[in-house]
Queue: 3 jobs
Job 1
Amino acid sequence: MELSRQEKNRIYNKNYYRNHQEEIRNQKKKYRKKNEDKIKKYRYENCDKAKRYRKDRRNITAQYDKQYYQINKDKVHRRTKKWRKDHIDDVRRKRKIYYLENRSKIIKQTKNYYKIHKFKKKKYMEKYFKKNRDRHNELNIRRFRSIEIIEHVDKKKLLEMFSWQCAYCDTKIKNNSDTHIDHLLPIVRFQRIGKKAPHSYSNCVPACSECNRSKHDKTPLEFIWSTLNSGKELSLIGSN
């Protein structure tokens, strides 16, 4: 079956672009530099037209992008990685702005994801620790140096003091890896001022992994205030 003229042209253009890719890119760059004002003016004048076009072709574009990504997955990853490396300061700045504007939304999404994919996350973390053992050990050493051990804190004894409940959300917890010993006055706060955090029963409480990760570098009061709108009831039980 003989190909139509349109299909022949399409195949020719595709092959020509493949063979002269670098040359075409350089020509486009030169044109953009030379006609920068002209391009800006055209975009400004046809802004609404472009929006309508993108809106009408949204499904077609999404389908094309999906197909292209599946075929050129490695190429897309390499290109994205290179771009992020070249624009690392811009990426960090934009991420920071986005996080500050959407902080509560991001925290909520992260919590929901962790609840749904708890075992998947656990497996990933185990794999990550095995792969980055040296880095993890270094962080632990740095953390240990920032602690002043006043007395040995036994996890089981601490759990008995708090009736085997999380100090923040009243959830029943067990003596396992999912139960953390949290410092009421965070270690990070002491690190910032070059001092050591006291490690004793008066500054340690049992916490579920979710609460401990969410609390991070906050004091108990700051943590409770930050989670008032999350729908989770928090109260410092047995802290007296």
Job 2
Amino acid sequence: MHTDRNTVKGRTPVASSEIRSVPLEPNRAPKSPAELEADIESTRERLAGTIDAIADRVAPANVAKRSLDRLRAQFVEPDGALRTQRVLIVAAGVALVVGLAVWRRSR
């Protein structure tokens, strides 16, 4: 079956002569080349800022710092006090794992 690039699945083919562009802002006159260049430059600057923000967010050092901050928040109160109950629970878990490893090696 022959398919035309102007054919959309399930629709009747449209002749190229029937295709027309629809302005995004129907009541606005076409932009001048200077306006288009200004729009492109503005978009380029916004895109560069977005890329910089993404690069900063995924930088390994920043990811490690955020992870360490989240881990620290689990064991330290916002005022700097140690959350002793959580520390004890983790210490008991570590002691259990070490104890099991020693017991298993001795068998």
Job 3
Amino acid sequence: MFTLTGLRVVGHREHEVLLAWSGVPRATYFVIQSKRADEPYAPLTYWEDILANEGEPWRYTGTTAAIAGLETGVEYLFRMKAYNFHIATFDNLGVPTYLGYTGPSEEVYATPLARLPPVQALKVVDTLNPKP
């Protein structure tokens, strides 16, 4: 079994959180899970996979991910699992019954930030050398 460590938040944007993690030897992909931290029944709330398509988890193959579509200003929890397609047992029909995985990782908190208002142009006045 391999160990998954180092999940961390490396950036925040409007409706998006940027995550990074340490690589895992023999892992072929990673699945990230999330849930809102402000749910009144958070301990009972199930973790949801970040989806690529309906019902299909996004399979991250690198060590970074941008998680988009989040509600700005809401705190989320993230965790992940590492998988390896090559570690499996098979039933009597040859169908994989277990794909090797580890996890979940430690949890990290992140809050997508609201967009900052545009910076207003400033007028600079030289008070030491005023012009007439």
